[in-house]
């Protein structure tokens, strides 16, 4: 449904006319076009909903009847219709668009001819320059994104003590280490928990494993160290892999004879260390591999690490990676000397905050349910839970927009008083 020009829209049009030569005639299509100009000029990212999948888009080019968008994660699914959503001047807009062409990361849409508004923000956000906050991520699922009820229930029944600890606001790392060690020993008494360090000398095999884990972030499972096929044959497991991909790439680059000799040498080296079978699962901080957990059996043992046990170690590494990242965010999100978590603006509905860490920015796109601790005054810290719904790349820093969905008792009253004081100061200038 088309809408008329509000005061905010007229203000936007005035701004845009001062920036661009093109004149608004008055029709909706021109207003829409200038909205896209605004998004491009401000380098704004916004939502692109394609086949019910929410992607992040940015305006690349504006043409006479079309707009070129850049969408890095787009996978063409046959449909030629989508929706775009963004906020301008305190109004959230939504358009249904027709897709003209899709070429890799670029998609061309026809400029919408009808302007739609699906929500007028009732509470204006107030800019602030002296407000900082601490925040932690809240558990939704280990992989982030939408709730995975079945997998969550499975993980909680399989690892109840680990899951109970990581759900806490401040997980205890020492306790996590004890629980993790006990869980690994259920598979094998022979294990390693290792973190990569710069400058530490590694053998050829250790260096190869490290590079493989850093590149793929996949769990490596070798069921039989006496057979080179265990290292390079194809696997059909969803979670467990070997060195098949590395083998294929090395054959292409270096030839089959050299590659077979390399993996045979690797197998012999591990056999000399009496290894019979092993699983190596990566430990990640954000999405970067920083170490691994390895469980193995040797010639002195009377068992091998089974496929089921290997998956158990893989699941453990997923949980511990989430836990370590949560603790890292907890300790790194509020550093007063660096002002890493600055609140940009705030209202009774939500807020916009700023971070510097690119890894954290991308991690929060999946783990976007957070709990915030905002010191409104010396005597009052507001505790509020929210969902991050906007992700804006500003080049050397990042802005994230949050909508609240629950607060501690009376916190909204204190926030209302805080905002009233701030707005009065602004209005009096």
From TrEMBL:
Residues 340-421 form the PilZ domain. InterPro entries: DUF1577, PilZ_domain. Pfam families: DUF1577, PilZ. GO terms for molecular function: cyclic-di-GMP binding. This is PilZ domain-containing protein. It comes from Leptospira idonii.
């Amino acid at each position: 449904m088309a809408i008329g020009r509000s005061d905010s829209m007229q203000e936007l049009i005035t701004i845009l006319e001062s920036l661009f030569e093109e004149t608004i005639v008055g029709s909706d299509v021109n207003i829409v076009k200038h909205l896209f100009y605004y998004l491009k000029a401000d380098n704004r990212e916004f939502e692109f909903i394609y086949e019910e999948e929410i992607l992040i888009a940015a305006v690349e080019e504006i043409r006479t009847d079309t707009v070129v968008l850049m969408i890095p994660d787009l996978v063409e699914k046959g449909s030629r219709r989508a929706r775009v959503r963004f906020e301008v001047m305190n109004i959230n807009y939504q358009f249904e668009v027709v897709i003209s062409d899709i070429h890799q990361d670029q998609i061309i849409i026809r400029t919408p001819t009808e302007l739609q508004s699906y929500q007028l923000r009732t509470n204006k956000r107030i800019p602030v320059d002296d407000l900082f906050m601490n925040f932690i991520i809240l558990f939704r699922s280990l992989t982030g994104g939408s709730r995975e009820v079945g997998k969550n229930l499975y993980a909680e029944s399989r690892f109840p003590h680990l899951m109970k600890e990581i759900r806490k606001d401040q997980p205890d790392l020492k306790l996590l280490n004890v629980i993790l060690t006990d869980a690994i020993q259920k598979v094998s008494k022979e294990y390693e928990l290792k973190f990569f360090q710069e400058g530490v000398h590694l053998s050829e095999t250790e260096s190869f494993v490290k590079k493989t884990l850093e590149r793929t972030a996949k769990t490596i499972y070798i069921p039989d160290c006496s057979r080179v096929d265990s290292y390079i044959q194809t696997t059909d497991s969803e979670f467990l892999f070997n060195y098949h991909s590395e083998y294929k790439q090395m054959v292409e680059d270096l030839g089959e004879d050299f590659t077979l000799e390399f993996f045979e040498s690797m197998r012999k080296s591990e056999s000399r260390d009496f290894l019979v079978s092993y699983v190596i699962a990566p430990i990640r901080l954000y999405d970067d591999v920083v170490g691994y957990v390895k469980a193995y059996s040797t010639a002195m043992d009377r068992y091998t690490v089974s496929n089921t046990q290997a998956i158990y170690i893989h699941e453990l590494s997923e949980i511990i990676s989430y836990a370590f990242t949560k603790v890292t965010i907890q300790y790194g999100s509020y550093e007063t000397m660096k002002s890493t978590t600055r609140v940009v603006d705030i209202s009774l509905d939500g807020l916009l905050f700023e971070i510097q860490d690119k890894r954290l920015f991308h991690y929060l796109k999946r783990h976007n349910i957070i709990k915030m601790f905002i010191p409104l005054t010396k005597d009052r810290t507001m505790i509020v839970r929210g969902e991050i719904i906007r992700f804006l790349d500003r080049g050397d820093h990042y802005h994230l927009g949050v909508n609240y969905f629950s607060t501690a008792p009376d916190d909204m009253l204190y926030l209302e008083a805080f905002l009233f004081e701030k707005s009065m100061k602004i209005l009096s200038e």
